[in-house]
Structures are given as C-alpha cells and as structure tokens.
Amino acid sequence: MRVLVCVKRVPAPGARISITADGQAVDTAYLAFTTSPHEECAVEEAVQLVERHGGESTVLTLGPAEADEQLRYAASIGVNKAVLLPIDTADWDPQRTAAAITAAIRDLEAADGPFDLVLFGNESADAGNFQIGVRVAYALGRPVVNGIKGIEVEGDALRARRESDAGVEVYRVPLPAVLGVKEGINLPRYPTLKGRLASKKVEVVQIPPHAEPGGQQMVTLLQAAEQVSQTAILGNGPDAASAVVDLLEELGLLK
Amino acid sequence: MTVLVVIEHDRGTISPASLEALAAARSIDSDVHALTLGAAADGAVATLAAHGAAVVHQVHDDVLADFGPEAWGEAVAQAARALQPQGVLTCGTDRGNEVMAQAAARLDLPMVANCISFAPGDMSSITRVRWGGSLLEQCSLDASTKLVTVSPHAFEATEAAAAGAVSVLSLSLDPSLARTVVAERVERAAGVTLATAPLVVGGGRGVGSAEAFAPLEELAAALGGVVGCSRAVTNNGWRNHTDQVGQTGTRIAPDLYMACGISGAIQHWVGAMASKKILAINTDPEANMVTKADYAVIGDLHKVVPAITAEIRRRRGS
Ligand SMILES: Cc1cc2nc3c(=O)[nH]c(=O)nc-3n(C[C@H](O)[C@H](O)[C@H](O)COP(=O)(O)OP(=O)(O)OC[C@H]3O[C@@H](n4cnc5c(N)ncnc54)[C@H](O)[C@@H]3O)c2cc1C
Ligand SMILES: Nc1ncnc2c1ncn2[C@@H]1O[C@H](COP(=O)(O)O)[C@@H](O)[C@H]1O
Question: Which chain B residues contact residue A214 at CB under 8 A?
Fold first, then answer.
C-alpha cells in the first residue's frame, strides 16, 4: 500500500497566543514548532498501515524551509520518504495550498505510481480551514471523508469510522481514497534514537510550488475577547475540602 | 440579495447549529432561504419558517437518504448554481464544514470556515476563528457566491417568523456519489457524555499515572459527573482520547469543571471555557488554569481530591 500524508508546521503556544505588532502573524519569537495533533496521528496511521499491509509511506508539507523539522520528525517514527513544497511566507491561502498539493501529488504519482491512500488531518491547528484535503480529493477525483477515527483495509476498499452526536458512522470507501483523520485514531509513538539518526539521512525532495492566490485573504489577526475573572482562593491543601463542598452545595451539585 | 442556509440534519433531526446559521444569515440580509437535503427533512418547514426562512428549498433524491459528504456537497453546489444567492451559509460543525468544502471544491470558489461576524449587508469582510477559537482573523472574501460556515455558539438561535414557502428543487445527482454515504451506524449507549455532563473532573499531567485517576473517578461518581483529561494525559497513554478536553478533543460546558493538575494551556482552555464555573486544583498559584478560574485550591491534588470526596460522604452521612 502506498500512503501519502500531508502535514503542516505550526507554532506550539502555551498559555496565550501573542500576535506580532503588525497583526500579520502569531509572534513565534519564544515558541517551538510542531505538527498539528490530528496530523501527528495521520503520520502514525500511515506508518501502521504500511507495517500491516506492506508498501511505502511519504510525508509532504508546503511551508518554509524550517518545515524540514516536521518532515524529519515523521521520518523518525518510520515514514519512508519526504517532500517539501518550499514557500517564502509562513502560509498560503487554502485554495492556493490545495492547488499546490494537488500538482505535487500528480508529479509524484507520474514518477513513482499512484498513492492508494492520501491522509490529511481533519483541520490544521492554526488556520482551521477545514477544506484542503477535500479540495485535493475532488481535484484528483477521489472519494474523501473527514473526521476519521478508525481505518481498516478490506480488499480494494476501506472501512472508515467516525464519531457523531448519535454514535459511530461507518463509511465503506473504495480505493484509491483520501481521508481526513482526527486525533484519537491511534496513540502516536515516540521516535527512538535509531529512528532519529535514520531520519537525518532521509532525502527531502523539493518541489517548488506554483499556484494562483485564492479568493480568501487574511487582513489581520485579532485577540479573542478574554474572560477576566477574579479567582476566589478557597484554601490551601486538604483543609479546603469543606469550602469546596460548600461551593458544590451552593451550585446545586450536591444532590 | 438572498442568503441561502444549508440545514444540517441527521435523518430528519435538525441540528441546533442550523438555527444559529439562520440567525447569522439574518444578520446579513432579511431575504433568507433554507435548503434541506433529503425527504427526511421535509418536516422541518415550520421550524425553519419560524427562524426566518422565507422559502424552504427541498431536494428529494435517493442518494440523499442518509448523510454523505460528496452527495451533500454536490447538491449544495447545484443549488447554488440554480438559485444564485449572494452567499451560502451552513453551520461550522464537522458535517457543515465538510459539506461546504465539498461544495467549494465543486464550484471552484473560496470558502471561509467558522465565521463569527459579518459586516451588515456585506459578505466580503468577515471575522472568523482560528486555533479552535483562541484567536480571531479578519479576512476578505472575493467570490461571485460567498461560501461560509458559522462558528457554533457565535449567533443565538432566535426566532423571526417568515413565510416558509416550500419549493421543490430538482437536481441531477449521480448515483456514484453514494460511494461516501454512511454505510452502517452504531448508536451510542444512553447516559451522560463528556460533552453533556453537568460536572467534569479533569486530570492533567499532575495526576502522574493512569492508576492515580482512581480518586478522580470516585469524586466524579459521587457527584454524577465524568472524568476528563488534558492532552498530556492522553499522550502518556494514561487515558483514552475520548476523555480529552480541548481544541483537538471535546468541548465541554458543565455547571462546574474541576481541573486538577492541569496548567491551562490555551488549547486546553478553549475546550473548557464554556464551563459555567471552573475550580482549579493546582500546586502552582501562578498556573494559567488557576489565574483564569473562578475558584481555586492551592495544593497537591493527591491530598485535596480524596479530602473533598470524604467531606461529601461525611455530609451525606454515609
Ligand atoms: C495544536 C495543539 C492542540 C492541542 N490540543 C490540546 C487539547 O485538545 N487538549 C489539551 O489538553 N491540550 C492540547 N494541547 C497541548 C497543550 O498545549 C498542553 O501541552 C497540555 O494541555 C498540557 O497538559 P497539562 O496541563 O496536563 O500538563 P502541564 O502543562 O505539564 O501541567 C501540569 C500542571 O499540573 C500541576 N501539578 C503538578 N503536580 C501537581 C499535584 N501533585 N497537584 C496539583 N497540581 C499539580 C503543575 O503545577 C502544572 O500546572 C494542544 C497543543 C497543540 C500545539
Ligand atoms: N501547508 C500545508 N502543507 C501540507 N498539508 C497541509 C498544509 N495545510 C493544511 N494541510 C493539510 O490539510 C489539512 C486541513 O487543513 P485546513 O484546511 O487548513 O484545515 C491539514 O490537517 C493538513 O493535513
């Protein structure tokens, strides 16, 4: 099985997300970077599918040169190949990103044969556009379902599960297919030392992207209104239990 | 000019977020139409009219008998071509975002996800949420038909009576779209879930191990609540991801959230902030969870949590 997984490099903010003075970006001066959690799980899923069914996995990102870090992280847990679509800015709009990824997939498939499965995250952690995987799938003429929390291969199709308010929905999607996965589909492994060393040697193939800007453009970032509350300290240590239970009574929770 | 609202429903049961989307549409223009997909939703006309739909466009097609992102997206794309509204709105739920993305791909138009406000009468300037709601973005939208999803809880589902005239829209949907229609379902067992529980006891890295969650389970059980956790906990394999609260977990809204040994990272906070009251139990008085909470106990959760359960039992005389 040939599996491609698309990931995005995003900052990892802590207690608060700060914005640069010009309002154009998250202030990353003191931040580390990571792969969106849904996509970390997509990477793990790609590795597990290849472990179970044989074949090869590839990771792809459109991003700055530094996104090399996220590609090598994927390689360190077992992804075989890495592809970077280098851009000068931190991000492209969703239509443009989707067009660039679609073109790159066509190039990769022309050279090495088709991917049976292309995995995306359900949504990117930072932009949360909820669309890039769907756009790529449509352009490639392949079926796509989002929100997937379980994948089983059944011959030339996949059984894909997702949660809804009512329970679990099961889709039976013919291959080749595209899926958007959610965190919780698996527990991503940590890289081993051996994996980390091996990832340094993986060749990162560069495909410079060309695509026209789309119709949605960011104007500025703004802080969300912050809830300010005066914290009432109910006490220190176990002695505070009485005050906590008073509060539970007051809130009508002690039935 | 008309704003068309795609109504999310599950085999006829309308999602509350759809009514919020109708309210959002009315904030743009008074000429609001609704679109229902599948005959199962035909019974919704009165509700949709009460929430401002002047016309309800119904699509009846076998391929729409159950949910399928490609079939629904193609139906929305065809309806947008036929009706030529200034904009198409739906709710920013998993299904809503997925269906709108399908429609956008098919129409080759931009789509703006999870919007929280529009300039009146103008869909070209929009405020949307990023980072699961931790950050806002002002964006411009340049498109012949503006495709937008509305962030849940951004608009109140108020009533505003309108005519609700029924119009049956005939589309041509290829049967092959059935390849991504729901094939099977497993209904959820009844009972409180993390999303609906009146009380949640959350545990973070400070809990220390899977076994150390037992006292949190006991406290939650004593109060008819459930246990939640942070991503540090799921990443360590201490609890299942179904218990995770936050941006990539569940959004909770209990009467009280007791956050034990959780630092309050923004991605956790965004899933907990709809709680009516928050009580933080933490050894660190400077932790973000403590400074943002309504109430706090400063101390070791391993001592505080069992003491609270004991005090509850003492007062109940058991
Ligand atoms: C894109 C993205 C999405 C994310 N999504 C989520 C999400 O959905 N949900 C989520 O939770 N996180 C999410 N995270 C992770 C998040 O950034 C934090 O890393 C995580 O929430 C930290 O978990 P924690 O508070 O349990 O651990 P820590 O940050 O390590 O905090 C532990 C806390 O426990 C306290 N403590 C320690 N010992 C004790 C004790 N004995 N008694 C009392 N207090 C004690 C400490 O003072 C500290 O405040 C996401 C991150 C990213 C980048
Ligand atoms: N710059 C990017 N490079 C590669 N994949 C991306 C990029 N941006 C988004 N994706 C993928 O598309 C999914 C959906 O992103 P979005 O539409 O922004 O919510 C993400 O979870 C990623 O898998």
Answer: 110
